Amino acid sequence: MYMNQNNNTKVAKPKMSLFSVVMLALSSIIGSGWLFGAWEASKVSGPAAIISWVIGAIVIGIIAYVYIELGTMFPESGGMSKYAGYTHGPLLGFIASWANWVSLVTLLPIEAVAAVQYMSSWPWAWANWTNHFVANGTVTTEGLMMVFLFILVFTLLNYWSVNLLTRFTSLTSIFKLVVPSVTIIMLLISGFHPSNFTNHNFGGFLPYGTAPIFAATTVSGIIFSYNAFQTVINVGDEITNPKKNIWRGIVIALFASIVIYIMLQFTFIGAIDPAMLAKHGWHGINFESPFADLAIMLNINWLVILLYLDAFVSPFGTGVSFVASTSRTLAAMTQNGHMPKILGKINQKWGTPRIAMVANWLISCILVSIFKNWAVLASVISTSTLIAYVTGPVTLMALRKHAPEFKRPVTINFAKVVAPLAFILASLAIYWAMWPTTMEVIVVIALGLPFYLFYEDKLNWKNSMKKFKGSLWMLFYLAFMSAFSYVGSTPFGGQNWIHYPYDFLVIIAVSLGFYYWGVNSYQETKEMQDAKNVNNKVKNN
């Protein structure tokens, strides 16, 4: 609601239609992932990368299914960062929020890196100055300066006006859907080689065995590419008829993105020149701008220009959109009193959390200075997001058990099976990120704990032991995942103390134990009153 200044009457804010929800989700999902994901996955697992996209879709689809019930129970802005705190207290809520924020703040540099990497391969003479932005897939010092500038532009487009942001993302949404579709069609009809899928000279359909199929889902940016379904959850209170349109928007957007991504992978594999594969194999495919490079090889010059244009539009559209989400996530973390209050300050004139935006820009620049490769950034985003996601199934079942009276506009079927399955799949996907990335991301998440402890001290450690007990399962879970990543099998970067696929069996068994520990760690918290207030406004019909 907002006040009409002429007569002081309350006027309802415009709500998002189902079409707007789907376009928002697709605009967020179709970012730099389509520009690099197919290439990265092909390098890891060859033609079997198609299966990797299917597995990634299953993992994210089942996790999203769990969040549909939570999202319709609590249709509120920034909901993804609040659910864990409702059922297990502020410490678990802080860990989930911090992990989610880490994934979002890393998304800003990955979109900038994507644009800069495509710039680095511009084939025109006047663009020679861009050729040194990337070397061997890693952003150079010159490239970093351009990445910093792009992240600043993402930020400034949000800094001054929410209306400007809305117009910008609306303009890019259709373009981001059309270009991948046109690329698929043109590459299929211009130079498709079916033998690439089965030629034994290149290793056949499974050139490196089955383990890389799973590794590719995380390390190649597949989980990252599908991940943005949470944008629908996070704007739950701005959607018309959230009971139906939250789950419809997620399902439609995910299905459309699955079709697009799998077709892009299929097309990419078939479009590669067999002579290149004969010489280098799948591991040796070396592109700076994968689809643009293929279009150049096939002499489709107009498509080359379109792809280089989209290499700005897709990353910029996603980057600009997520500056808003990232800043609001950081600002929301101040509400439980465990982050500096100044980060939550909203500029009265523009309605944006400007200080949070500036902080995010600085953190993004630091992160990209450490992780300078698109695929590594994608792994960081996927892993941190998945760590936040594992709290969802636990929260769902804790609410089923301890708050059965809550309104549930959408009650998912087979929750007792789906919730632990979602937890297991998320755990496996975290493991697939490979050592040392899994450990590095967990360390980054652990770096947030000093903020929490500092503010707990200022609160005189009130009920701290109770809060700690509600989150103890997560602390041990993170320690286990980090350690097991080190001792796991060779295909996932470990010491091979436990061989593939037995490492998967250990993850499944231990994850189930942590899941049930988490569900039984439910606590009656003061945050639960906030949950009740939000849920009371929900309509079941």
Automatic annotation (TrEMBL):
GO CC term (a single one): membrane
Record GO terms (molecular function): transmembrane transporter activity
Pfam families: AA_permease_2
Gene3D superfamilies: Amino acid/polyamine transporter I
Keywords, comma-separated and alphabetical: Membrane, Transmembrane, Transmembrane helix
Record membrane topology: Multi-pass membrane protein
UniProt key word Transmembrane: yes
Compartments, as annotated in UniProt: Membrane
Membrane-crossing residue ranges in chain numbering: 16-36, 48-68, 89-110, 143-162, 174-193, 205-229, 250-271, 355-371, 377-399, 411-432, 438-455, 475-494, 500-519
Endoplasmic reticulum recorded as keyword: no
Protein name as annotated: Putative amino acid-proton symporter ybeC
